[in-house]
Amino acid sequence: MIEKEKNHTVKFSEINKLNLTDFRNHNFTSISSNNKFISIVGANGSGKTNILEAISMFTPGKGMRGAQLADLSNISGKGGWSVFMEVSSCYGTTKLGTGISNIEIKNGNSRQCRIDGKSTNSPKSFANSIGVIWLTPQMDGLFVGGRSERRKFFDKLVALIEPNHSNNIKNYERIIAQRNKVLYNSDNLSSKLLDNLERQLAKIAASILISRQIAVNQINHIMIRDVSNNLFPSAEIIMREELGSLSKDCTISEMEEDFSKILCVNRKKDKMTYRTNIGPHRTDFTLWYKKNDMYAENCSTGEQKNLLISLILAQARVYQMNNQGISPILLLDEITAHLDMERINNLFDQIFTLGSQVWLTGTKIELFDCIHSKSDFFNINNGKLTQIEY
Ligand SMILES: Nc1ncnc2c1ncn2[C@@H]1O[C@H](COP(=O)(O)OP(=O)(O)OP(=O)(O)O)[C@@H](O)[C@H]1O
Ligand SMILES: [Mg+2]
């Protein structure tokens, strides 16, 4: 491993082996590769995206499709599924596994996660061994779709940079739901319970706002610095916040205190509207496309895709900066479908410079012409995978 690192200008992290057992339409699929580019080619419905989804299970949450654990079990299998991978980096090789049995699904258990054979509490622990960033065709409508999906996307982006963020979001949402329930069910608007919940909310809200600000500043900085001189557009993340009179230009404890007060003042209104009207759970995100002087939602479909690519590349660079130079794994589903050849070439050049291992899918092998010497190629047919020469 150490020898390999010496030959790399950037530190590498790559999946060298991936096994899917009873995962979606894969009965058993095993992929071995030491390459930076892995291209999976096959007809619609053959099982390409399912492979990327399996890799995405090594991140906190429900993977790239946000699926229920039971839906991931092969419908012709025994119930239950597992995914195993070997990840090599300059620090050595790590074996990661995740999955769930039929009985565990029926009992409503969480999925199991193992690192080098030892059980860990949650998929969050995988973050020490692997970073995964994905771009799928479902994300094409991100800027024009519902804001909660967009917020989830941006919060995932923040979480890759600020590891406590996803936990904070989860706890914050849980307490918001509790507060809404208390407000709805009680006529006592000055209860100690509400004071207590709002104090907890204010503390987490301040951390959320700070993490978002740190991540957004870092990504924006990179998007202006690096991305402006390539074929993908220079853009800036804009946060549209609904924080009322809360100012972020103060200390954390002042922010906490202010937000606590705002929540208290808003109890009556929040009770009437059955929701908490102000807070980081209301924030929306967009991108400002500098060249067009326009927000992403008003840009063309192709421009929106290119903006997303800029964002993903910047995110990967920021991840690298924050992780001792180690590059994240990129999962690019059908990325070539809407890009012209010049942009495809430019994208692959940038990924090559970044040093990330990239898993690509496509329906036609010709779309990967420009990386034919750099990539391993696999054909997939009805969940059956074979390596091919190209
Ligand atoms: N739990 C499951 N068990 C068995 N098959 C499933 C399960 N979930 C989904 N599938 C099937 O897996 C097949 C492959 O899906 P996948 O999304 O990977 O296709 P794809 O190769 O990416 O296709 P496309 O080119 O259309 O994106 C689909 O036919 C889908 O119906
Ligand atoms: Mg697909």
Describe the structure.
The chain has a 6-stranded antiparallel beta sheet with strand order 2-1-4-5-6-7. A 6-stranded mixed beta sheet has the order 8-12-13-3-14-15, with helices on both faces. Residues 1-9 have low confidence and may be disordered. It contains 10 helices and 15 strands. It has helices at 2-6, 48-56, 102-106, 147-161, 165-185, 192-225, 252-265, 267-273, 301-322, 341-354, and strands at residues 13-23, 26-32, 37-42, 80-89, 92-101, 112-115, 118-120, 132-135, 235-240, 284-289, 294-295, 329-332, 358-362, 375-381, 384-388. It has 2 domains: 1-131 and 324-390, 3-Layer(aba) Sandwich (Rossmann fold), CATH 3.40.50; 142-322, Glutathione S-transferase Yfyf (Class Pi), Chain A, domain 2 (Up-down Bundle). Helix 6 (192-225) packs across helix 7. A hairpin with a 2-residue loop joins strand 4 (80-89) and strand 5. It is of the alpha/beta class. The protein binds adenosine-5'-triphosphate and magnesium ion (MG). The site of adenosine-5'-triphosphate has 15 residues, from helix 2.
Put the structure in a nutshell.
The protein is an alpha/beta fold and 390 residues long. It is built from ten helices and 15 strands.
Strand order of the largest sheet: 2-1-4-5-6-7
Based on CA atoms alone, the radius of gyration comes out at: 22 Å
Ligands bound, unique: adenosine-5'-triphosphate, magnesium ion
Largest sheet: 6 strands, antiparallel
Span between N and C termini?
28 Å
Q: Which blocks of ≥5 consecutive residues have pLDDT under 50?
A: 1-9
- Spell out the CATH superfamily of the largest domain: P-loop containing nucleotide triphosphate hydrolases
Mean pLDDT rating: 92
Query: At CATH's second level, what is the architecture of the largest domain?
Result: 3-Layer(aba) Sandwich
Number of helices: 10
Task: State the CATH topology of the largest domain.
Answer: Rossmann fold
The percent of residues in helical segments reads 25-40%
Counting DSSP E segments of at least 2 residues, the number of strands comes to: 15
Structural class: alpha/beta
CATH class wording of the largest domain: Alpha Beta
